[in-house]
Amino acid sequence: MKLDFSGLESSAPLYGGNNGLLCDGFSDAPSFDLPVTSDFDGFQKNSIQMVKPAKGTTTLAFIFKEGVMVAADSRASMGGYISSQSVKKIIEINPYMLGTMAGGAADCQFWHRNLGIKCRLHELANKRRISVTGASKLLANILYSYRGMGLSVGTMIAGWDEKGPGLYYVDSEGGRLKGTKFSVGSGSPYAYGVLDSGYKYDMTIDEAAELARRAIYHATFRDGASGGVASVYHVGPTGWTKLSGDDVGELHYSYYPVEPAIVEQEMTEAIVA
Amino acid sequence: MSIFEYNGSALVAMVGKNCFAIASDRRLGVQLQTIATDFQRIFKIHDKLFLGLSGLGSDTQTLYQRLVFRHKLYQLREERDMKPETFASLVSAMLYEKRFGPYFCQPVIAGLGEDDKPFICTMDSIGAKELAKDFVVAGTASESLYGACESMFKPDMDHEELFETISQALISSVDRDCLSGWGGHVYVVTPTEVTERILKGRMD
Lengths: 273, 204
Prior knowledge:
The structure holds 2 protein chains of 2 kinds.
Chain A: H1 40-51, E1 59-64, E2 67-72, E3 76-78, E4 81-84, E5 90-94, E6 97-100, H2 105-126, H3 132-145, E7 154-161, E8 164-171, E9 176-178, E10 181-184, H4 188-198, H5 205-222, E11 229-236, E12 239-247, H6 248-255
Antiparallel strand pairs in A: 1-2, 1-10, 2-11, 3-4, 5-6, 6-7, 7-8, 8-9, 11-12
Helix pairs in contact in A: 4-5
Chain B: E1 10-15, E2 20-25, E3 28-30, E4 33-36, E5 42-46, E6 49-55, H1 57-78, H2 84-97, E7 105-112, E8 118-123, E9 129-132, E10 135-139, H3 142-152, H4 159-174, E11 184-189, E12 194-199
Antiparallel strand pairs in B: 1-2, 1-10, 2-11, 3-4, 5-6, 6-7, 7-8, 8-9, 11-12
Helix pairs in contact in B: 3-4
């Protein structure tokens, strides 16, 4: 049986020497003209910093009795500017596996779709679904091979396989962790606070959804780079379902309604012109 | 992030018919983290003169305290309130005094001058005055604010329409800025009354 190693192959360009005049189109590596600058190392570092988006987001996932709960906000920010309030950060890899997006939007979208393709190929080759362990390992190996090249991916792979619910954290530094509770992004400290204090393994689906929603809401309140819509998904034995997508601006006033304040009316002499 | 974006702020002032409005957001943050949602950025100097200060929170509070001190001395000596044009010159001079170690603030001054004619102006952090006849903006959301004001502003609005316009301009601009928002604070000043309102905004 031929094993599929394509997931392990690095498609990163090999660094061949740029031979200048001697090179007449036969060099292995694609190359480009070096920019005219006195400080090339600084330039390279600055340009990677410019392209590397900060992980301005809040995503979370946790395993409980009834499966996996996955939630995320929907804001995309470029420095201080909000570029979108309606980004889909929970990516549907296949009907029984979800991935979350934190970091570079393009990186996450592309590599999750790539993972979806590899999972489907695995299914066809092996006549059975890939496990969450296997899928997360595929993604982690791909990201490891691009380590140091400026990819920015902080994702959680959540799914239900033969062993039950599975949750893995995978990032672009090459890390892969198995766990029961994760939150990723700039708003994660705030989400962890709510998640840790409210978490119980024995929760109903509704209780877990409300916990996830509340955690995302609190993160969007405190973190400037998170906001928009709090989406909540549930992964069960029959696959994932989207439970809710609530606008965080409205959630605030439903959790903390405005009490009409006593208005002070000051009567002072009006200076008549 | 620059020092001007450390705390995050949004300020706008608009001129209407014999009235003016000045509005700010209410967030105080430390870079991306929100610390307070009731931070005061607009200060009353006297009944017909308001000062809004955007930029680093610490400098806005210090500058405000120094300006109030100078204005109180002026009131004692001259036995009257300062005219807005005079106050603007005072602020400009105080900011330039610190030319080589500036206050990291951008002030917005709005007042009713002689014959209750509305006066607004803004300046950069070292005191370059910019007088405008229609609106002035400051803060991290200033680019969005310029766009919103330019499209929503009409000359000679009465105080109710002015309130609606300035509120809409502020809220729609801060909704596109990570570092400002979390509510709004609007003062509308006519020759006979000052109305202070808190705006309900997106708290994200």
